[in-house]
Design brief:
The protein starts with a strand and ends in an 18-residue tail after the last helix. It folds into two domains: 106 residues, Transcription Regulator spoIIAA; 175 residues, Nucleoside Triphosphate Pyrophosphohydrolase (Alpha-Beta Complex), CATH 3.90.79. 29% of the residues lie in helices and 28% in strands. The protein is of the alpha+beta class. The strands form three sheets. Strands 7, 8, 9, 10, 11 and 12 form a six-stranded mixed beta sheet that branches. The longest helix is centred in the first third of the chain and has 17 residues.
Amino acid sequence: MWTLISEDEDGTYPIGYVLDEVLAELLNVPQEVRGEVKVDEEEKTIQLLAGLATEQERTRAIANLSDHWRQNETFKILKKWRNELWPVYGRKGELLFSMERTALGLFGAMRYGVHMMAYVKDDTAPYGMKLWIPRRAADKSTFPGMLDNTVAGGLMTGEDPFECMIREADEEASLPEAIVREKSEHVGTVTYIYITNTKQHGTEGLVYPECQWVYHLELDEHVIPKPNDGEAEGFYLRDVESVKEDLAQGKFKDNCALVLIDFFVKKGILTKDNEKDLREIETRMHRTMPFPGPHQPDWKAAE
């Protein structure tokens, strides 16, 4: 494992994690395509894009590299190309560059998104509520057919988390904008790291550090989420106990399971009295990340 670094006048700092096989393929790319690459064998660090002064230059250079790999079918994960640019930040609050979301995973940089759980109050149900749970479409490129949070999506460069959630709520669940704007509640973030696998991602062992902005939305019983863009095959109103069973059986997409556990903690369903490992669980859902970005509590974007 290698650490991807950037550099400013105060020295170097980490921005991602790179596997040995990714570095090997990087060094196989013609220099006129990949640009200058600095490899420090002793420190196990890699620096890309050295000498490029602007965000536009760095974004263009990383796009050339990603497209070269895509055209040459170097990594299976690039077959899922999305034409969405995701941000990579520097420690002064600046945008270092933007990169195609599927290629970003090859460099182990922070990934950002939003997740929203919608629920309906129901005094007859366990814990007085039911949750709107979608099933992912069978033709999804990742985690097909698995259960999901009501709304979720990746945060593109320059996109505000709340506005991203509004967009995804319409695109994925046909939820009226006015209701989502008025009633949704931002309840914090989750930060975590997971490792990709061949079955779900097409590539084994990539490191995905992620931050999700989490929202809760209490809906009236007459507001029913419906598939819109084909991301979900349907939405199902489920009680907490049945959701717990599906979680235990591994039926949820990985990070959606984590957000559901966070929901149970915040709603007082999962407590220290009924879960002895709650402190460890919460620590794993709120990991301290070594990379700069808006997930950091003291973050301030550059003007």
